[in-house]
Design brief:
The complex is a heterodimer of chains A (182) and B (477).
Chain A (H helix, E strand, L loop, with lengths): L4 H29 L3 H29 L1 H18 L6 H29 L5 H26 L5 H20 L7
Chain B lengths: L1 H28 L14 E4 L4 H13 L4 E4 L15 E4 L6 E5 L4 E5 L4 H8 L4 E3 L10 H7 L15 E7 L5 E4 L5 H7 L8 E11 L2 E10 L3 H10 L4 E8 L9 E9 L6 H4 L9 H12 L1 H18 L3 E3 H4 L14 E11 L3 H14 L3 E10 L14 E11 L2 H20 L3 E2 L9 H7 L3 H11 L8 H7 L1
Parallel strand pairs in B: 1-3, 2-3
Antiparallel strand pairs in B: 4-5, 5-9, 6-9, 7-8, 7-9, 10-12, 10-13, 11-12, 11-15, 14-16, 14-17, 15-16
The chains are: A mainly alpha (182), B alpha+beta (477).
Bound molecules: flavin-adenine dinucleotide.
Chain lengths: 182, 477
């Protein structure tokens, strides 16, 4: 089943907020755990590589099992990974998490595009996608600005857990979709 | 879909709960990096192992390569005491083995990189506790000795009294056995000596019984405090520890106080029920409140009210000596590259307290600094160390200041602190040296009149200047 455009924009806004919130702190975490730029490079390389290798497989899967399932895997997966992140202390742990996040990221990005492809009609695609990016972009921007204030009040752990909760609630949004796009 | 929803939600909530509960413990055990945000310095960091001969080799190598060495514990000092550009920083945190323990004689020998917390974990099961430490147990033994720290204890006079002996690796590579009777000159200089005379290797500490205390709290006006303290606390033999807070909230600024006394509990049999060492708690709530206080005056008033209510609620609560010496601290950690939190500590004779607070209030009202908290404790006169702050029986005031790192704000704080230090000195007081180099050289020399003999001994004990740090450079060179 595929969500309606409206549902999908809401979903993607929550995802965008959660990702924007943790991004700067995730970089900080990588920097603190690793102690050279080479390790930093490896961490990112593994992410990109696991994404790249997963795409063909995910693409086929998406047509077979449907977007809803894949979006669920993505949301729940990210929610769980974010619970683990604040506990990492060694580089090898970061490498593993980067591979997992690379896979999840590939699922997320592929599904984003397949859903958009399925819900837009070709003659209005430009407008629809423009609109989609505006709303999700604003949500992410608001989250980034708000986080700038939040860090004074929250521990880094709390910040990651909050983002995890956002991912979990995005999963709940997907669970609640019952009707296919009409 | 419904089934998988229930399944995933349940698993998720269980894991979320687990993560939230375990995170504080994780933070407590994580290795802490450099905190001296005010003085970023390029250095090579070398981690010491538990092998003493490796430290000797390292010293030889540094001599051969003509490198300066600094020593570092948990690096909570804030004025460059562990830093020197281009030098080798020896990180002592892993040099932390417990070497000997005699529960009957109540002594323990430990390598200097051990934290108080580690020692507490070791001795608590034997019903023993430390004599003198800071209010928190996160610091290393070596770092604590090198600042000659003090805490809430009222009865053991000073840290120096609880150090039976220690071994010191000096600049020329020899190892000295140091105590009050042996190499006494080293004893007087190394304690409060900021790592300038050699590497403190292992230390034999005097311990004491872990006792159960009942907490007694009271609210009072700052004018009544000295008398209250003398009569109700110092002269009460049951009172073993003490701590007070002075309001920094605008409504009651430097007037309202509340105190906490730790009195020996009548029923010591209950001790075992309370003996378990406390873990760092979930810090989200105090961190949030401190965050609010940082931002506004209303926030400060609110923070003060909450603290006071919380302290009243503690009245009558039982706590062991060990736990009174390991209060939470991580909620104060502040993550930002553009702002930080700095500490200042001033000592003033008990008799001068009231007029001193009046003068301090007047200074603070003229300056725009963001003062978050003032803690008041007692230090008894002690002449064991050369750089000595407790020249008479004194109150110590610790000020926590929120500090943006831009030049204007630093200049404002600098001006305010210079005036506060001047006020302190004018009241026969002194200031504490582990914090940032705001006080001037002149003020340093006035506060520590024996600075010259300190310097002479340094030049004699370490003629090559192998052990260095930025604090020494600032005030002596
Ligand atoms: C939040 C906070 C609360 C505090 N509370 C208190 C308090 O209640 N009472 C109090 O008295 N102080 C207090 N302090 C100050 C604290 O006691 C000192 O900063 C102390 O030095 C911290 O220990 P450390 O292990 O971090 O030492 P570091 O900062 O790592 O080192 C301090 C000095 O010790 C030297 N040194 C370290 N290890 C060795 C060694 N093995 N041999 C020789 N020299 C060595 C270093 O070269 C340096 O000069 C507090 C500080 C903070 C930040």
């Amino acid at each position: 089943m595929t969500p309606t455009l409206r549902q999908f924009i809401q979903f993607q806004s929550v995802i965008g907020m959660a990702s924007a919130m943790i991004f700067p702190f995730y970089i900080l975490l990588l920097r603190n755990v690793g102690d050279s730029y080479a390790q930093f490079g490896w961490a990112y390389g593994l992410f990109a590589l696991s994404s790249a290798l997963a795409y063909p497989w995910i693409g086929r899967l998406s047509d077979r099992v449907g977007d809803q399932r894949l979006l669920l895997v993505y949301s729940w997966g990210m929610a769980l990974v974010l619970l683990v992140l604040p506990f990492l202390t060694d580089v090898w742990q970061i490498y593993i998490v980067q591979i997992v996040m690379g896979l999840l990221g590939a699922i997320g990005r592929n599904s984003e595009k397949t859903v958009l492809a399925r819900v837009t009609t070709t003659d209005k695609a430009g407008k629809t996608i423009g609109n989609y990016h505006t709303v999700t972009g604003v949500a992410a921007a608001v989250a980034i600005i708000a986080t700038g204030y939040l860090v004074d009040f929250l521990t880094i752990g709390a910040l990651f857990f909050l983002a995890s909760l956002l991912f979990a609630s995005s999963a709940v949004m997907i669970h609640r979709i019952k009707k296919p796009l009409s | 879909m419904k089934k998988s929803f229930v399944f995933m939600s349940t698993i998720y909530l269980a894991l979320l709960g687990t993560a939230v509960v375990y995170y504080p413990q994780h933070v407590e055990t994580a290795v802490i990096e450099d905190r001296a945000q005010l003085l970023p310095t390029q250095m090579k960091r070398i981690t010491a192992t538990t092998e003493t001969n490796e430290l000797q080799d390292l010293l030889n190598e540094a001599a051969k390569e003509d490198r300066v060495i600094t020593l570092a514990g948990t690096q909570h000092s804030q004025g460059g005491q562990t830093l020197y550009p281009g030098g080798w920083l020896i990180d002592m945190k892993e040099y932390d083995e417990i070497l000997a323990f005699d529960p009957t004689a109540q002594t323990l020998t430990v390598q200097s990189g051990a934290t108080w917390s580690k020692i507490q974990e070791y001795i608590q099961p034997h019903g023993l506790a430390l004599q003198v430490t800071q209010s928190q147990s996160i610091f290393t033994v070596g770092g604590t000795m090198s600042v000659h720290a003090h805490g809430r204890d009222l009865r053991y006079n000073a840290l120096s009294e609880s150090i039976e002996s220690f071994r010191l690796l000096t600049a020329d590579g020899t190892i000295l056995d140091v105590s009050k009777d042996q190499h006494a000159d080293y004893f007087q200089h190394v304690l409060g000596g900021y790592g300038l005379f050699g590497i403190i290797l292992d230390v034999t500490l005097r311990l004491t019984e872990d006792e159960l205390y009942v907490q007694q709290t009271a609210e009072l006006d700052y004018q009544d405090y000295p008398e209250y303290f003398k009569e109700q606390v110092l002269e009460n033999p049951e009172a073993k520890m003490h701590l007070a807070r002075l309001s920094t909230a605008p409504d009651t600024f430097l007037k309202d106080m509340y105190v906490t006394n730790y009195l020996v509990a009548l029923n010591q049999e209950l001790r075992d029920d309370y003996a378990k060492l406390s873990e760092e708690r979930i810090i989200a709530i105090p961190k949030f409140m401190l965050g609010v206080a940082r931002y506004s005056d209303t926030g400060k008033d609110w923070f003060w009210d909450v603290q006071q209510t919380y302290s009243e609620r503690l009245d009558g609560d039982l706590i062991t000596r060990n736990n009174a010496m390991r209060s939470d601290s991580t909620f104060m950690d502040y993550e930002s590259s553009s702002r930080t939190e700095v500490l200042q500590e001033y000592f003033v004779p008990i008799e001068q307290y009231v007029s001193y607070i009046d003068a301090l209030r007047e200074v603070l009202e003229r300056h725009d600094i963001n003062l978050l908290n003032i803690t008041v404790r007692y230090v008894e006169r002690n002449e064991d160390t050369v750089l000595n702050y407790a020249t008479s029986d004194m109150f110590s005031l610790v000020l926590l200041i929120h500090q943006p790192l831009d030049e204007d704000s630093l200049a404002e704080t600098d001006a305010a602190i210079e005036e506060m230090v001047a006020t302190t000195l004018a009241h026969d007081g002194s200031y504490y040296l582990p914090y940032y180099q705001f006080p001037t050289r002149k003020q340093f020399k006035e506060a520590y009149p024996k600075w010259q003999s300190f310097q002479q001994f340094k030049e004699q004990a370490d003629p090559e200047g192998r052990f260095q740090n930025l604090w020494y450079k600032e005030y002596f060179e």
